[in-house]
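Contributing new records

If you add data, match the layout below exactly. Sequence lines come first and carry their own label; structure lines follow with theirs. Keep one chain per record. Anything else will be rejected by the validation script.
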Amino acid sequence: MNKEDILRQLNIYDTEQLPKLKRIIDILNKVMKSYEVVSTDFLSPDIQGYIKSICFHYPDLKYTLDGGYDDAEYKKMIVYPDYLETVESDLSILDITYHEKYGDVSHRDVLGAVLGLGLKREVIGDILLENGHVQVMTSGHVASFLQTHLLKVGRVTVTTDIVDKDRLIEKVESVKWINTTVKSLRLDAIIASGFNLSRSKAVDLIKAERVKLNHNISVQTSKELSEGDLISVKGKGRIKIDSINGLTKKERYKVDIKKYI
């Protein structure tokens, strides 16, 4: 099956995803011809969601995803012939330290410093933060480049090193819990409750293609949601349905929502 046939079967709504998905198919075709082990750049969760469907058309190949730790959001895809038992990942962890007395460092600061060195967003994965300490998931050659050239993040002077996974920072989520009731589990109702908006404003955001459900744009206002669904609204953040706890006496759904802050 050729590239265009595979893409048509995916029912892709967001056309911005097409170049990345085409690149994945190109890599699969390359491995089919060369029997090499090939890694992609870091893939966002929406792109990862298509991988299983794409690889269905390549039964002689295997793949694995590696983001540095189990719950990583951005992951590299390693493709290899099915006769290989295991493959090595080229993922590396860049460890960044700084003195807090000279300032603080945010996720945006780190990303800006990396992009300011001429690198693409796709060459780095998740960024983990704790006081005076940052870790960036990347590949070996990029980690070596950053170790040499990344001297400041924002206005803060930093020191860099490449470390093993046993020195990984523990990811800590910063969340606000929303315990609420909703008349229905529709997408517009959950957005209105989770972001403290009117129902009509939630509908407007969905129709304006500013809402992603489980990392993909959703324009279906009446879409029924379930536990574990992740909703992001451009400019407002992300929420996740943690649990649905039955009905109240007035037959409203009791919902626990996790809002990322």
